[in-house]
Amino acid sequence: MEVSAQGIPVERFHNQEELHMKLYFKWGLIMAKAGDTKISITEDLYENEPAWRYNLQFKTHGIFEKVYSMRDTMDSFFSKDKGLLLYGNKHADENDYYLIDEWRFSYHNGETSIHSKRYTPAKTKIDTVLTAKGKTYDMLSATLLLRSLDWDDLEIKQTVPFCIAIGRDIINAAFRYTGQEVIERDNIKYKTRHFFIDIYDEAFTQSKAAGEAWIGDDPNHIPIKIRAKLKIGAAEVYFESAKHLKYPFSCSIPTRQ
Q1: Which residues pair with 111 in a beta bridge?
Q2: In the chain, which residue ranges form alpha helices assigned H by DSSP?
Q3: Can you give the pTM of this predicted structure?
């Protein structure tokens, strides 16, 4: 078993850490708020064993709520003793259409096996087993890989490869480090570390720089901004507030009015 493959970075957070983010869709000069996101990490149980639960809740807001209502939740469970990814799910409740994805992870001889299942309340759409080598995640838990990185070990243009299990596929991806960057939002500047998100898969029209992430440059390593390119425009997620951080939130720099 390769215990280091999907470890959760327990050195970065407290139990009951909670992050609040806002999602916007951007078309040219138009920036429309689309929804609110809450991300939390708590002590929990998985199959009656102590575990870490990494949870995301998203709901649409404003005009998007009227046009296309979404109530999505995602969970990733990690073993408490070794911090190993065990299970993930996504519940998509979108305009009265309900879809569930589940991923169960197991490990043997350096290889990760994922039982991937997708279904609605009435029908199973996918039920298959995937295999991968190296760091392998579900869609939510891959964000923890960024939080686990040690800035002192990174060099400019260095890539950190990983895989994501989605439906019937294993998607090959990498975080590409570009260094320190200061960004500004709502009259607050943030010291961050910037990464491109490269996707290597035929399903994506752009194999490199499919997205970007700006991670707070303090010991918490929480996301400050995430940007994903879409066929039309882009989706951008911005940090709003946090609770129960393990370390002082020292990456922000208030600007003068």
Answers
A1: 108, 133
A2: 63-67, 143-148
A3: 0.90
